[in-house]
Amino acid sequence: MTQDDIIKTTLEDISQVKKRLLVEVASREVQKKLNQAYRDLGKQARVPGFRPGKIPREILERRFGAQVEEDVTRNIMGDTLPKAIDEFKAFPLGPPVIEKEALKKGEAFTYSARLEIRPEFELKDCTGLTVDKEIMEVTDTQIDEQLIRIRESQGKLNAVEDDGPLKAGDMAVIDYKGFEDDKPLEGIEASNFMLKLGSNDFHSDFEDALVGLKKGEEKKFHVDFEADFRHSGLAGRHVDFQVTITDVKEMVVPDLDDAFVKGLDAELETVDDLKTKLRETITAQEEKRIDREVKQRLLETIAASVDFELPQVLVQNELDFALENVNQNLIRSGSSLEKAGLSPDKLREEFRPAAEKRVKEVLILGEIAGKENISVSEEDLEESFNNLAADMGQDAGMLRKYYEARNMLDSMKDKLLEEKTLKYLLENAKIAEKKKIELKNHKSE
Fold this sequence. Notes:
Layout: E1 7-13, E2 18-25, H1 27-44, H2 57-88, E3 97-100, E4 109-116, E5 130-134, H3 140-153, E6 156-159, E7 171-180, E8 183-196, H4 204-210, E9 218-224, E10 238-252, H5 258-264, H6 271-304, H7 312-332, H8 344-371, H9 378-392, H10 396-405, H11 409-427, E11 430-434, H12 436-444
Parallel strand pairs: 5-11
Antiparallel strand pairs: 1-2, 2-4, 3-4, 6-10, 7-8, 7-10, 9-10
Helix pairs in contact: 1-2, 3-6, 6-8, 6-11, 7-8, 8-11, 9-10
C-alpha cells in the first residue's frame, strides 16, 4: 500500500487478471472540492430573494446538495482513478466497474474499481518448433472439376421429359417449408428453389431425402443441422421439412473447345490456355490456404504449451463481434435474429469456445511480438493499403482516409502485427512437409 497525505491506494488481487483498486481520499480534500463546487455554484445559481453571489451556503446545500455531491464525486474519481491505475501499472482492458460510498461532508471518500488486465504468463522459446506443412499439389482432377463448374455456369437448363425418379446430379425445382416443434420457421421456406442433388449446396441429408421422388410428389422428412452449419438460421437446429417437387431440369453445358474458351476470355486462345490459367489461379489459392493453415497449426502448438486465465472483457468483445456478424448477415438476407428464432444467449454459448480460443491466441501473439520487438511500421501500413487498394480496384490514399475517418486504423495495425508475428514464427520454425492425406489422417487420430 502506498501512503499519501491526501490519497491512499491499495491494489487487491482477485485472480490472475481481475484486480480491485481501493482508493481513499482524505476528508480535507473532499471538503476542499465541496467548498470550491459551492463557490462556483453560488456565482451562477438563481434563487428567488437572493442576489447572485450572495446566496447562503445552507440554502445552496438544501436546493442543490445532491447534484453538487454527485458532481464532486465524479470529479474526485476522474482525478484520482487514472493516477491510481498508473501508479500500479494496472492498465484495464475495459471500463472499470466502480463501487462507491456516498460522499459525506467532513469524512473521507472511498471507492473501489474492479478491472481486468492482461494476464502475465511465461512462454517457452517459440522458435525452432516443428510444424507440419502440406505439400502443395494441383492435380488434373482439380482442373477438370473447375472446368465442369465453368461450363455449368455457361449452360442452359431444359425441362426433363422423362418422368423417372430423381437421382444424384439431377436439378430439382422444389417448394419447401421448415418446421421446428410443429411451428413454421421464419425465413426457412422457398418456392421454385433449384437444387442439384448430390452437390451438398443445401445439406447432404436434405438432398439425399429427395432421391427417388418424381415430379409432383411431396415428402416430409427430418434434418439435424450441425452447430457450425454455414446458414446461421439453421445451425444447430432440428428441422422438419415439407418438400414438393415442382419440376425437374437438366443442365445442357457447352462443349469444351477453343471457341468456348475464346468466348470466355479474349486473351485466351485454346483449351490448354484455359487450363494453364486455371492451374495458376488454383496454385495461388492453394498457396494462400496452405500458408494460412500452417501458421494456424503452429499457433495452436504454442497455445497448447501454456495456460492462463482469459480476461472476460476480451472474450465478451469477441462474442459481441461474432454475434453482430451473424445479425448483419441475416439483415442482408431480409431476416434478423428474432425472425430466425435465434437466441442471442444461446448463440453466445455456442460461440464461446471459438471466442476463447481466439482471445488466447491474440494474447500469445501480442506477448511474442513484445518479446521479439516486432512492430508495425509506416512502411508496413502503406504496403498493406496498396495491396488492399489493388485488390479492390481503389485508390490507396482514399482507402486510408476511409479507415481513418471510421477509427479503423488501430484494428488494421493489430491485424498487421499478428501477421508479422506469425510470419516471424514460421520463418523460425522447422517445416515437416507432408501430403494432404497424411495431415487428414493425423488430425483424425
